[in-house]
Amino acid sequence: MAAINVISGEVLDWKPDPNSLIRSMAISESHNRLFVGNDFSEIAGQSHLSYIAAFDISSQEPTIITDWDPDVNDHVQSIAIDENTVYISGMFSQVGVESRNYIAALDIEDASLLAFNPNANGFVWDLFFANDSVYASGTFTRIGSQDRGFLAQLNKATGFATAWDPGGNAETDAIAVYGNRIMIGGSTSLIKGQKRYNLAIINAATGNLQHWSPSVNGEISTIHINNNKLYIGGTFSEITNNNSAPETRNNIARFDLSTQTLDSWDPNADAWVRGIIVKNSNEIYVHGNFSTIGGQTRYRLAAVDSNGTATTWNPNTNPSNSVNAIAFYNDIIYIVGSFTEIGGQIRNNIAAIDASGNATSWIANTDSYLSGITVHNDIAYIGSNYGTTSSNYGTITFGATTIDRIAAVDTTKDTNNVT
């Protein structure tokens, strides 16, 4: 992981060097803390910090908080923050000396274990907040002292399951909350005893299904909601809305939530759509494995307009590239993945692209494939879960400097030198 100044591309002198992978990151802006987790057993030279760690990011040089140590005994897959509480989930069974199966809550200041204890009987992969509750998704069939299939609403103080019970029959891959509705996507076929193929809309208060019943014939990987529109992406080719005749939609589609109808908007991507970010109704940014979208050749990354047509914004990646994650910050889109040229410039695996589709002067070239990015206070925190051999798996190299798996880069200076 690295931290990079998003104005200049300068890599900060921050080398936490975890000895294994980072898969989850969360930032508390009110506490100026960055939390990272997964399967490391040492980070920032601290061998007592395993699976989760906290950094003070109040300055541009993040520092490890050595005494923030909940002592988790296995992988932390997801981290979610709600005010003064850090909720974690993953593969663990113990926190400190207490039993906590797959999900727990920690005090954000001192890492003390809180009473919250849903005691799931299977992995909890994702956590999110809505309606003053914690929602959990995973492989479990019992959680919070109740039978719950793959998705549950939990009291955020006690961890007990509420009466909310959508009763799914498969894992959920994508979740979004909109008002009193929760949209779930994945590979499910049954919700609340009724057929729902890969997409369902659930009342956030009662857990009851909405009468609206769209069905998608393939897996949904991403959901994004903006201005009463529901965008979905994944690997599908056909959508049936409220038992109407099936309509062709390849890998990306949009619904109108006010009318509960499938929009005519049809960018028609020719392969998997991995992520969607809506800046406004006329700028929808999409990344995935596609080569054509919106009627134009666009490799892996594109912007489409309100008609579903590709805009002139075209960073012009090539067919062998991959785009693994994108983030917006100050009207610039930051991109990480596996590429050597983008936006008309040589940029290795990380780039900043402006509103015209051109690479900015910001340069933070690395010879390492990157898997994730988040930007906070002009600092880009980047992570890598890739490598060409077992010896360099997850390493990030900037020039002569090698950083393991996680790094911070200053964005305000016009240099690519490691400080």
Task: Spell out the blueprint of helices and strands.
Elements: E1 2-5, E2 8-11, E3 22-28, E4 33-38, E5 52-56, E6 63-64, E7 76-82, E8 85-90, E9 94-95, E10 98-99, E11 103-107, E12 124-130, E13 133-138, E14 142-143, E15 146-147, E16 151-155, E17 172-178, E18 181-186, E19 190-191, E20 194-195, E21 199-203, E22 214-216, E23 219-226, E24 229-235, E25 238-241, E26 247-248, E27 252-256, E28 261-262, E29 273-280, E30 283-288, E31 292-293, E32 296-297, E33 301-304, E34 322-329, E35 332-338, E36 341-342, E37 345-346, E38 350-353, E39 372-376, E40 379-383, E41 395-398, E42 401-404, E43 406-411
The unreliable regions are 387-394, 414-419
Number of helices: 0
Helix content: under 10%
Radius of gyration: 21 Å
Percent strand: over 45%
Q: Averaged pLDDT, please?
A: 86
